[in-house]
Write a structure and sequence with these properties.
This protein is an alpha+beta fold and 730 residues long. It has an 8-stranded mixed sheet, with helices on both faces. Strands 26, 27, 28, 29 and 30 form a 5-stranded antiparallel sheet that branches. It has a 4-stranded antiparallel sheet with strand order 6-7-8-9, with no helix packed on it.
Length: 730
Amino acid sequence: MKRAHYSMTAPCSIFFGLALYVTSCATSSIAADKTAPPTQVDVVSDNYGDVKVSDPYRWLENASDPKVHEWSLTQDARTRKYLDGLPFRNDLVNRLMTQIAQTSSSYYGLQPAGDKIFAFFNQPPKQQPMIAVLPLSADPDLAKIVLDPNVINDQGTTAIDWFSPSPKGDLIAVSMSDNGSEDGSLHLFDVATGKAVDSVIPRVQFATGGGSLAWRSDGRGFWYTRYPGADEAEDRQHFYQQIYFHKIGDTPDKDVYVLGKDFPKVAEIYLQNNGNGDAILATVANGDGGEFAHYLIGNDGAIKQVTQFKDKIVDAMVGPDNALYLVSRMDAPRGKLLKMSLDDLNVEHARLLIPESEAVMQSGGATGGSPMIITHNTIYLRELVGGPSRVAMFDLDGKSTGLIPLPKVAAVNELEALDDGTVLYSISTFLKPTYFARFNETSGKAVDTRLAQTSPVNFKDVEVVREFAISKDGTKIPLNIVRRKDIKMDGKNRLLLNGYGGYNVAMTPHFLGAATRLWLDAGGVFVIANLRGGGEYGEQWHAQGALTKKQNVFDDFTAAGQYLVAQKYTTSVNMAAIGGSNGGLLMGAVMTQHPELFHAIVSQVGIYDMLRVELDPNGAFNTTEFGSVKNPDQFRALYAYSPYHHVKPGVKYPAVFMATGETDGRVNPMHSRKMIALLQADTASDAPVYLSINSHAGHGIGSALSIRVNQTADVYSFLFDQLKMNYPAN
């Protein structure tokens, strides 16, 4: 086991099991990055069993400390001076904003209700998406705005977290939060008038477990998620999510507890009714590790548990035939479909309807839309094949009836059945903005709708090729390579490699937009790697990049970079890497394990101190993915790759740009503060190490458009400068 390299502090340390001792021998380190301000060293040491670990920048964890605030301001000011001084940075902002402003409106998050379709409505250059209502024809000319947060807050910092229309579509429940905090309160609006009705319900949404709501079939009330109040201990207030029922017209203090007191601390609850009049389905995730339990809640309040975490049921839905459909990964890591009667809720009695295939049946939950839709005639399954999607169709007896028409490399993120016998589905590709098509069950044909975004950016001279790198253990890693058709394979191309590799999240095709077009115009190549830890090939693919096998993710990304060099796409001096959140951990691990591979690293809202991540406000949710220091084997794995504990003095690290938001409820900004301080102190290269801290942003969800555009401009300004790229003329 490698130990931390701060041996100078060992004589100051006293250990009592896992207790901490704060040394009194504080000093200021002289930054090896000569342009960086010095950072005070005040060592804290921990014992993990017989392993002693020292932390020189523990004091930077305390966001309420005025010294930390001052340090953050100094770091951000230094970064702003550098970025704002680049000759092309202002033009880059204006260019991106102009192209976004010329992008047409777009619709997403469709939810049919009654004779209406509700959707998020994005209209650049407005700061925040709105909620619109359309007829079943989905004609955008007939759309009306239901709620505009840009009117509620003209600063653009109030965001809609999620919404749920009533069964008839006459009311809409909306969670809203401020400054990217994802700390949401529930508001109820009359759809016809747009006026607020009923009481505001607090604590329905947070970045830890999210939030959800499902209406009673008669529209007289709804079930919703609620977090503990201010009367509870602070360490409970963003955990222990429970289900309550609200009757329209009552005040929140009269709302009735329904379920959840026995759920895990890290429960994440998703509620759905799917138009079924008899019951709603509550999906309870055990943190972020891919385990789910399911409950049926009747209109009469009766509760029946259907599945447990151990059953490996990853999605469920009540069909119009009053049967329960279940996606199971029991002995089927890519998923199989089961069917059971509501009169017999023993999952062992469910019958196999559709066996496992080469494609991956996706997990359920609140993000990305439902992976399964059941109509009176057809089962639609959104499936993954290594990253791209397909939609498979079956009759209610499980017989295949074909695939919905799609382009070759595309993703379907939304699939909604309408009462007229058609299905609306979104189509996303790398080179074309998202659009919706309508599939007719009777004719078996699909037509594009007018729910389609247009962009002034086009990629007619660009192609996407899929190639495969070979990882350290021989695993083939898909690479989606976005390049100009006239590319020269001479190693001189600037290349940006992106990856994530975690939480069963698949990196699927999505429109790359203005920033990537700019990158390509400057002679760049953009590559997205489908790494283990994601969901591209099913649960085994995820498991091979989680817990004690997390190192595989870093090996996969390293292999991708080495492959791109070997194929003469680029060289290390011309290559950069970018990742965020879990992808930020990836950036930290790759730069500490292979500092020579990339010339520049962009890491956004990342995780770096893997020994303390579970102590963060959202950290408990991560233990199912990363593991815990309390487990000896998992501790050894965490310590072996933890980026913060593998920064070494005298190593020539690449140029680094990190960005974080002060209101981030998902990843504690202290990770970025500590990692930057250590890199600035230890790097032996002439490459700079910068930190950007935004006081009006969180994890990136709900941030105003102007903030997002400026953050994107920061990233590409840094990359253009560090890779010595020529800024392309308009």
